[in-house]
Design goal:
The protein is mostly helical. 66% of the residues lie in helices and 0% in strands.
Length: 187
């Protein structure tokens, strides 16, 4: 059973399952799919009324999102601890590996390269720029765009919202530009 669960699911199974999340959420109570608003819900829960932005009934809208986020954290822990595949990632093309090696990334064990995602790297200048700076930019971008990639690309596009399509295109273009031009400057 563990061997079956440690392999990725084929696109023809995972794609429809993700696609079915949207109608399921709408059927069980007009819920929205997205995570970027959770930081606001947490702040409103911890420091209610400290600013106009935090004066709202977070229990009415935020309890569902916070529960969903907690479930994602628990699921990620279970997957990485008990279902992790010890084999190297095989889905990386030789051209991509060559580009990563040129940047100094040589460890392809697991899903995340240890030269980028580790506590040792966090306390270096590239680690601070990537993890702290990148986290700030992702949070700022999600707030500025009115939602995160999952909210726009999955929920918004499924709801035929033009701003979500524009935001999703912007997310992808930004990712390509940072990968192409930003990473070589950082490493």
């Amino acid at each position: 059973m563990r061997e079956m669960l440690s392999h990725t699911w084929p696109f023809w199974v995972a794609g429809p399952l993700i696609g079915l999340v949207i109608p399921a959420l709408l059927l069980i109570g007009n819920r929205q799919f997205g995570l970027s608003s959770n930081f606001r819900h947490l702040c409103a829960m911890i420091a209610p009324g400290k600013s106009e932005f935090l004066r709202y009934d977070w229990k009415r809208t935020g309890l569902w999102n916070l529960t969903f986020a907690l479930g994602m954290l628990i699921g990620g822990f279970i997957a990485s601890t008990f279902l992790a595949n010890p084999d190297p990632v095989i889905g990386i093309s030789d051209a991509t590996k060559a580009d990563l090696v040129a940047l100094g990334i040589t460890n392809f064990q697991g899903l995340l390269p240890r030269q980028v995602f580790s506590f040792e790297t966090l306390f270096s200048l590239p680690g601070l720029v990537l993890i702290i700076g990148g986290g700030f930019l992702v949070g700022f971008g999600a707030r500025y765009a009115g939602g995160c990639t999952s909210g726009h690309a999955i929920m918004g596009i499924a709801d035929l919202q033009l701003p979500s399509l524009v935001a999703a295109i912007g997310f992808f273009v930004g990712g390509v530009l940072v990968t192409r031009f930003g990473l070589p400057l950082i490493f």
